[in-house]
Amino acid sequence: MLHLKRDILRRLASKGILIFSAFGLLASTHTMSASIQQPSGEHESVERRVAALLRKMTLAEKVGQMSQRNGSDGYAPDDLGEGLRAGGIGSVINVVDVDVVNELQRIAVEESRLGIPLMVGRDVIHGFKTVMPIPLGQAATWNPALVANASRIAAAEAATAGINWTFAPMIDISRDARWGRIAESLGEDPYLASELAAAMVRGFQGDDLSAIGSIAACAKHFAGYGTSESGRDYATTNVPQNEMRNVHLRPFNAAVDAGVTTLMTSFSDIDGVPGTANEFLLRQVLRDEWGFGGFVVSDWDSVRQLQIHGLTANDRESAYEAITAGVDMEMHGDAYSNHLGALLADGQIDEQLIDDAVSSILRAKFRLGLFEKPYTDPTELPPIASRDALDTAREAALQSVVMLKNDHRVLPLSAGKLTSVAVIGPLADAPYEQLGTWIFDGDPDLSVTPLHAIHSLVGHDIDVRYLRAMANSRSSSTDAFDEAVEIARGSDAVLLFLGEESILSGEAHSRADISLPGAQAELVRRIRDAGKPVVAVIQAGRPLTLTNIVDDVDAILFAWHPGTMGGPAIADLLFGVESPSGKLPATFPRMVGQIPIYYNQKNTGKPPSPDTVVLIDDIDAHAPQLSTGMTAYHLDAGYTPLFAFGHGLSYADFSYSDVRVSADEIAMGETVTVSAELTNDGDVAAEEVVQLYVRDLVGNVTRPVRELKGFKRVFLGPGMTVTVEFDLHTDDLAFYGRNMQLMTEAGDFHVWVGGSSETELRREFRIVDSD
Ligand code: BGC
Predict the structure, then answer these.
(1) CA of 558 to the centre of ligand 1 (A)
(2) What average pLDDT does this structure show over 597-616?
């Protein structure tokens, strides 16, 4: 079981966790340095160099910098060489052979007139060769320092291939688990996503963008893409400006504050103006209000898609819309290269527009140090899948797993008490599937599967009986189920490895039904009837509706797609070497019809409560008109989720008490400290993510019933009690009001501290105007 071992303490301290034991506070959260600050001298010299280079450039060379070309399979340096020599390409995407990258850089630097090096872009979304948990899983760790570290490792591995630009982090808020890209996101909450977005930017870019192992980050997709209608990828989005600012833009603002080098536009139509033509977002918000000094890249061919959207009649008009809106570089498309020159010649655009775009691209190249060091020597970087990379992948997987239920404390399994365990299901031994979506470069040969890890952990002490039972997660065949039941009957406990294969989530992989696919629910029912303790370990790219199986299993570990080291993390959790500590970054609905469902909803004028809800089966047949409570709920689903945002169980017994505020009243500009006692009543040491929620009772616009405003991951020894504190400044309570002005209002607030968004431990305080 869990002990406070010295090496664990060291490891946790290095991961930025608050650690308490019988000896008190042993280590504390360290925050990595904030945004990448350029010393002013360096800034001036970059600006001088940009201006000097720009003066030398022809129009064609400028447009070249604004054009990115695809270099994936089938393209050799020869295919791109001509364009590079002519100065017609500013960036390439999808070239991952370091020799090819170096050769492309050589042509750009040595054979083009001005020798401008290339931005080499790639989707390094959650790891390169060593795959970390999917971003949604990383979000479940609620651990910015760990997430930053995972991104740092991904950056260093990618840099060995000459990649200097990743199209991550993806920080679209998603409240719709049907959307396949929720897997790539940081979940539903603007605060959590903002903290983790900034962490990922710091991880990819490091403190010094020109350092070996740092690569430029790209916050995407600007903005509101996560609200695609009915979760269907690329579908229309309609986000009112107030919600856009208070919810969807906040992680982008945080990424910009953290110094992100680039942003990518959204594919979708946003209230009639697609992201790639959205001047309001790209100029007014991003540049004028936030002062973003990096550059904006379109999404894949999304400039030309403006025509398909029906916004423009041809590529020339599309190029016009995108450049005037503020898109600096076109990803894989030729609308800019074919038409910007003519638009300028015909006086439709001003050359200043082009100069501004090119300057911001050159600025990024100077800051990356590409002019000084265009070539990559992989031996200067840590080896792929280094010990550090694998340890971080394991730690991230460990902290990402959420224990949704654990009836009768069936978990952890006690090696001493079991003689045999059945391991059944399509995802127990699926090295590729556990990596999840967006793993262009991920290496399934590095994957350690749960089956393999369980064998290694229990050795010969326990008889492990494995049956895949289904060819894949979608299979509808039940042919192997009799054998599965047989194995279950003959074992002391059953571990069911269920979920979605990686192809069922990700871009353009949305689902309308988000329950366990194929015959998995049937497998669960058959195994339940074998009468043994049943633990479901679910790997998936999204929250699933688990209503039809939740009562048929004793425990559920929700492991997302946990990446390369998912197996050892899961095995350690199952057998109690470690305690689960992940918390949900997105709400789990009971039924798909509840979507969008999220904890920080508005109250409505008719909020539901337990006394107002009459469910469909309880309607009084004799007085049907009085049967329902006239409040905001579904007759067949009620109004609560199956598992709430922030939920996640532990092997420890954590209890919260004594929530306090340092003052009942504070003036505008002051800070209130909110604290709570956290006790570990159990006999194992474990980590808990302590969460702080706030409600602003009366607002200039209606405010959510709860908003996350702080969280801390705390490691607590058995029998210990600690006081966890959060400082809340009145600026932390700011929101965009009716006139889209950021404001904090005087008035009454509720605060809660606890282990999920459903915590009931509440205090109040008031903000008064200072004058
Ligand atoms: C995706 C982007 C990605 C790009 C390049 C697009 O289809 O929407 O997120 O970065 O492809 O692969």
Answers:
(1) 27
(2) 95
DSSP-assigned beta bridge partners for residue 494 = 422, 534
Alpha helices, DSSP H, located in 160-304: 190-205, 241-243, 250-257, 279
Closest approach atom of ligand 1 to CA 167 = 10
Mapped onto helix, strand or coil, the DSSP state of residue 685 is coil
A 10 A CB-CB count for 81 gives 16
Q: Ligand 1: which atom is nearest the Cα of residue 221? A: 9
Cα maximum dimension of the chain: 87
Nearest CA to ligand 1 atom 4: 300
Nearest CA to ligand 1 atom 5: 300
Ligand 1, residue 170: give the atom nearest the CA: 9
Give just the sign of the alpha carbon dihedral 733, 738, 740, 741. Answer: negative
361-420 pLDDT, tens digit per residue, is 999 999 999 999 999 999 999 999 999 999 999 999 999 999 999 999 999 999 789 999
CB 196 within 8 A of CB 145: no
Residue 683 has pLDDT above 90, yes or no: yes
Give the C-alpha separation, 596 to 178, whole Å: 9
**What pLDDT does 79 receive?**
81
The Cα 50–Cα 365 span in angstroms is 10
What spatial distance separates the first Cα and last Cα of the chain, rounded to whole Å?
57
Among candidate residues 189, 269, 299, 429, the one labeled active-site is 299
Using alpha carbons only, what angle is made at residue 246 by residues 240 and 248, rounded to the nearest 5 degrees? 75
Whether the pLDDT of residue 688 is over 70: the answer is yes
Specify burial of residue 609 (Cβ count, 10 A radius: 0-12, 13-18, 19+). exposed
Q: Classify strands 735-736 and 742-743 as parallel, antiparallel or unpaired.
A: antiparallel
| Weakest-pLDDT range from 236-250, 420-434, 624-638 | 624-638
Four-point Cα dihedral 232, 234, 236, 237, nearest 10: 90
Rounded Cα gap, residues 120 and 166, in angstroms: 8
User: Which residue minimizes the CA distance to atom 6 of ligand 1?
Assistant: 300
Residue 251: closest CA among 232, 223, 272, 213: 223
Token readout for 351 is 């050359």
Query: Does the model's pTM come out above 0.90?
Result: yes
| CA-closest residue to ligand 1 atom 7 | 300
Task: Name all residues whose Cβ lies below 6 A of ligand 1.
Answer: 123, 167, 220, 267, 299-300, 507
Which residue owns the Cα nearest ligand 1 atom 2? 299
- Pocket test of ligand 1: the residue of 182, 264, 300, 330 to mutate, having most ligand atoms within 8 Å of its CB, is 300
299 is catalytic: yes
